Amino acid sequence: MKRLVLSIVIALAGSCLAVAESGDAGIQLKQTMPLPGVEGRIDHFAFDAASARLFVCALGNNSVEVLDLRKGERIHSITGLGAPQGVAYIPKLDRIFVASDKSGLCKI
User: Fold this and answer.
1) 3-state helix, strand, coil in the chain (%, to 5)
2) Alpha carbon 107 to chain centroid distance?
3) Which of 6, 28, 65, 94 has its CA 20 to 30 Å from the CA of residue 106?
4) In the 3-class helix/strand/coil scheme, how is the chain assigned residue by residue?
5) What is the pLDDT of residues 36-81, one digit of tens each?
6) Is residue 35 a contact partner of residue 58, using CB atoms and an 8 Å limit?
7) Residue range 70-85, pLDDT digits in tens
């Protein structure tokens, strides 16, 4: 199920990137990425179009997984977030904001 959901999100994010680069509006599956070690639910995503990065809240892992859509791989795992429930990427600041369900904090 995680692979299916992540595949759909990657297809949508990749499509947004493709539209930005080529002007084509079609949505097609481009790739899937396994997330070894990620357990439980994944929830909420943010997309960095300029760098083709996808930020994925791995609720069950208490982490945000950072995926490079051009390379097709996970490039970083931000851990210790206490059930991340939301993520937003602000391009002007080049920062992500992560809301935590466990602590009630928003970490930058």
Assistant:
1) 20, 35, 40
2) 16
3) 6
4) CHHHHHHHHHHHHHHHHHHHHHCCCCCCCCCCCCCCCCCCCEEEEEEECCCCEEEEEEHHHCEEEEEECCCCEEEEEECCCCCEEEEEEECCCCEEEEEECCCCCEEC
5) 888 888 878 999 999 999 999 998 888 999 999 999 999 999 998 8
6) yes
7) 999 999 999 988 889 8
Q: What total number of domains does the chain contain? A: 1
CATH number at residue 39: 2.40.10.500
Q: State the pTM of this model.
A: 0.73
